[in-house]
Amino acid sequence: MPELDLLSKGMTTCQGCPMELIARAALDTLGPRTITMTPPSCAAILTGSGDETGWGIPSVQTVLMSLPAFASGVSEALKIRGMDDVTVMGFAGDGGTFDIGLQSLSGAIERGHKAVFICYNNEAYMNTGNQRSSATTLGASTKTTPTGKKESAKNIDFMLLHTPLVYQATASVGNIPDFKRKLKKAASKDGPCFIHVLAPCPSGWKFPTDQTIEVAKLAIKSGAWLQFEREDGKITINTKPTDFQLINQYLDGQKRFGRVTPEIRERIIAEAKGRYETLCRLAELDCLV
Amino acid sequence: MQKLVQQRTKMLETLPEIIGPVSVKVSDVHTGAWRYRRPVIRDEDCVRCGICATYCPCGVIEKTDDGMVIDYTYCKGCGICTVECPKKAIDFIEESNFRKEAE
Question: Can you give the residue range of the structural domain that contains A144?
Answer without folding.
Answer: 18-284
